[in-house]
User: Which sequence fits this backbone?
């Protein structure tokens, strides 16, 4: 039988297109295990041993922060002079990866052969020459935690209800969940916020307790579990995409933290042209991380600048971040 070459080519093309157009198989049909969802812990009591060992340590020489990374893995960050905001001299910090072995966490700095053993709230350092030093675990508390609103302040949340917030709701502990916008709008102000980040040891980057405090719904102050990190403009305390904090003052997750914010709105002339940028000074856990910082425009997803006041937004980003004790003194 003689085969028409053109007809054969057409038929092969149809078969090829049909194969290419078949939908991809789901993970179950391809025998590929589904990627596990990172565990999220909302309380110290349920967070496990990785959380217990995570935290801050110090001695008279310097400080250290241990970050829990899940699956018995940890990162040790050592700073000379003290902890960030409490003596650190600003020089580059030493970072060492380690993991749990039995009841201890073991780290080794391959550059100088120093070893670090963590157990029972103590880091024991052994140098290459055999000298031994220790650091004890410490717990820091923001000096403005629990700050009471001054006379005349507007109380936006006192733990009783979420009526001041559009889309606001409380969890069973009485904390305000991220993902809401204040009913009231503000122009120039001093504001106090307290926030609580979840512990997500397997989370990375923006998936590790992501939220944000939007000023006038225009400028985002990032809220994120950035404990022990460098402190970038997309990490906790950063003005998102615009300015990194002077120092990363993020405490470990599941510890209440504070933002104290002084804000001066942008001004506009009679024609509606902006004549002065908005400025902001922010204290994170009592330490100034931005000082009279000029904001040259809204951050990504922020509303356009205008002469009118704007609300606060507590950004919801799919992470269980909570707030309490929110009040505003208008200027």
Assistant:
């Amino acid at each position: 039988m003689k085969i028409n070459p053109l007809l054969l080519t057409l038929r092969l093309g149809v078969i090829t297109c049909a194969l290419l157009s078949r939908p991809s198989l789901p993970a179950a049909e391809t025998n590929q295990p589904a990627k596990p969802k990172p565990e999220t812990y909302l309380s110290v009591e349920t967070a496990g041993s990785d959380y217990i060992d995570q935290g801050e340590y110090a001695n008279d020489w310097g400080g250290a922060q241990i970050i829990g990374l899940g699956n018995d893995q940890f990162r040790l960050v050592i700073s000379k002079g003290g902890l960030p905001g409490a003596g650190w001299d600003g020089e580059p910090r030493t970072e060492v990866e380690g993991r749990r072995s039995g009841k201890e966490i073991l780290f080794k700095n391959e550059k100088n052969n120093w070893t670090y053993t963590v157990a029972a709230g103590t880091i024991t350092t052994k140098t290459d020459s055999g000298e031994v030093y220790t650091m004890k675990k410490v717990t820091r508390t923001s000096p403005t935690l629990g700050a009471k609103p001054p006379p005349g302040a507007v109380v936006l949340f006192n733990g009783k209800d979420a009526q001041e917030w559009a889309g606001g709701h409380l969890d069973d502990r009485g904390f305000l969940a991220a993902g809401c916008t204040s009913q009231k709008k503000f122009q120039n102000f001093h504001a106090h916020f307290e926030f609580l980040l979840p512990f997500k040891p397997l989370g990375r980057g923006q998936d590790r307790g992501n939220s944000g405090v939007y000023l006038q719904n225009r400028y985002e102050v990032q809220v994120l579990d950035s404990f022990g990190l460098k402190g970038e403009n997309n990490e906790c305390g950063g003005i998102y995409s615009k300015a990194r904090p002077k120092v990363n003052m993020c405490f470990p997750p599941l510890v209440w933290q504070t933002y104290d914010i002084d804000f001066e709105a942008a001004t506009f002339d009679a024609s509606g042209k902006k004549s002065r940028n908005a400025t902001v000074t922010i204290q994170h856990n009592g330490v100034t991380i931005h000082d009279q910082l000029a904001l040259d425009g809204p951050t990504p997803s922020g509303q356009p600048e205008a002469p009118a006041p704007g609300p606060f937004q507590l950004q919801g980003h799919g992470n269980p971040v909570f707030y309490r004790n929110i009040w505003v003194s208008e200027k």
In short: Residues 44-138 form a domain with the Lipocalin fold (CATH 2.40.128).
